[in-house]
Specification:
This protein is an alpha/beta fold. 49% of the residues lie in helices and 11% in strands.
């Protein structure tokens, strides 16, 4: 099959994206020194090191020919499945995501990529939600979409799934009432897996509904790429990077949702907690998790950071507690410290 100029550019960019030991900035630098994907395939690890001006660990493995073979296969799957590629330098690439410390060099997208540049809020939380947490995630996302704000989450079980469902429900309710759906927000799912694999598999129907209602599914991993545990943390930085604020519905100590909150703060974004995170049942769950983590710390199998990464830590640093989407909107435009939830006031009074 004869390759077009666009095909050749995409193969080069997929080849670069596959080099996991390079940062986004290093991939951009390397791309400027290449005239084709064949040139990249012929480079040695020493030559790559010289071009990006950084030495690599002896554990780094590079096989240019194999990398090129996989990139060509990935492009074939993208063309077959209708998957769109967004390069870091493309105008459609979301500006907020471009601003984080190490943005994805390439995004693989399904659905409406136009919403990646629209007003959004990221919603995260534990997989083991209480009933109050489920209601909070659903209602928050529903109200956000009705207000024209797109909801970003990670398609995981628990808070993510309920946030996506709330967004979808808002679309169908508006459509049923004959409202102008063009004015609604949508929902974006960020995968920890390859773009053609829905994780968890039980959310395939939810993913289909996201696309059917004008949403978008994205990943930094090409089709057919295997998944590693560290992909979940990589996914979290994208969720935080796509929005000006991240709302945590419920999250016990050490939760992946709090890693997302950390990424948000590191990128200069706002972090807020829904009051559902501090309900009695949520507190009981958090206390149980905290006890387990403390035991793991004493045995040397859990890090101190994980034990100490709690919702209280964020509240003490000034993260506001919200009761609803409308409350979130007020907090987003308020000067820091001007509006306190009773829980925050109690926390500050005790210090």
């Amino acid at each position: 099959m004869q390759l077009t100029d666009n095909d050749e550019k995409d193969i080069l960019n997929i080849s670069l994206n596959r080099i996991t030991f390079l940062s986004c900035k290093e991939k951009i630098l390397l791309a400027k020194n290449l005239d084709s994907y064949n040139t990249l395939a012929l480079l040695s690890i020493e030559e790559i090191s010289q071009l990006v001006n950084r030495s690599f660990s002896s554990r780094v493995v590079w096989n240019g020919a194999e990398n090129l073979k996989m990139a060509k296969a990935a492009l074939h799957y993208c063309r077959t499945l209708g998957i769109q590629l967004l390069l870091y330098t493309d105008s459609e690439y979301p500006e907020l995501l471009r601003q984080i410390a190490d943005p994805p060099y390439l995004l693989f997208c399904r659905g409406n990529v136009g919403i990646l540049a629209e007003r959004s809020v990221s919603v995260v939380g534990t997989r083991r939600l209480t009933q109050a947490g489920k209601k909070a995630a659903l209602n928050f996302a529903y109200d956000a979409v009705m207000d024209g704000c797109t909801v970003v989450s990670g398609l995981a079980n628990g808070a993510d799934g309920y946030a996506h469902q709330g967004a979808i429900d808002a679309y169908y309710d508006a459509e049923e009432k004959g409202a102008d759906t063009a004015k609604l927000g949508r929902t974006i799912a960020v995968l920890p897996s390859s773009i053609d694999e829905i994780v968890p598999a039980g959310h395939k129907k939810l993913a289909a509904q996201i696309l059917k209602t004008g949403g978008c599914i994205i990943s930094e991993y090409e089709p057919r790429m295997g998944m590693a545990n560290w992909h979940f943390v990589g996914r979290n930085r994208i969720i935080a990077g796509l929005s000006p604020a991240t709302v945590v519905v419920e999250a016990p100590a050490g939760s992946g949702a709090l890693i997302t909150a950390d990424f948000a703060l590191d990128s200069g974004r706002d972090v807020m907690f829904h009051e559902a995170a501090f309900g009695e049942l949520a507190k009981q769950v958090s206390e149980g998790v905290q006890a387990t983590l403390q035991a793991g710390l004493s045995q040397g199998v859990v890090s101190r950071h994980k034990v100490e990464n709690t919702p209280q830590k964020f509240l003490e640093a000034g993260a506001p507690v919200i009761t609803s989407y409308s409350d979130y909107c007020k907090k987003l435009i308020s000067a820091p410290g001007t509006e306190n939830h009773p829980l925050q006031q109690e926390l500050f009074d005790n210090n």
